[in-house]
Amino acid sequence: MTSNIKPEASTYTIDATDRTLGRVASEAAHALLGKRSVHFAKNQAIPCTVTINNASKLHLPERRTKGKVYTHYTGYPGGLRETRMDVMIDKKGIAEVVKKTVDGMIPRNKLRKPRMQNLIVNA
Predict the structure, then answer these.
(1) Residues of the chain with pLDDT under 50
(2) Number of structural domains the chain divides into
(3) Of 99, 108, 65, nearest to 84 (Cα)?
């Protein structure tokens, strides 16, 4: 049963210094989903802001940055595009990599966009 009580906006701050990308991203996704709130409901986006600080100090081994490949399909024949993590960091910055990682941990439904708008990544 869902409650009619409007939850107050909360803020979570995550320090990414010397931590791995997946652990920081899973902690952020957990908070964005609202699982840290007592007002958790699967069908509502909880108003919480998650800030990740020091993203540039993440522990990213060279093996990961050279080996991780992001793919997307343009929709045209032969349109599968691949980008390595190190190239994406050079072009778009580490914040984009962190956002993409957290985005992959959020369920694919109508609440995904409002939840992701509550994520702030500071390099």
Answers:
(1) none
(2) 1
(3) 65
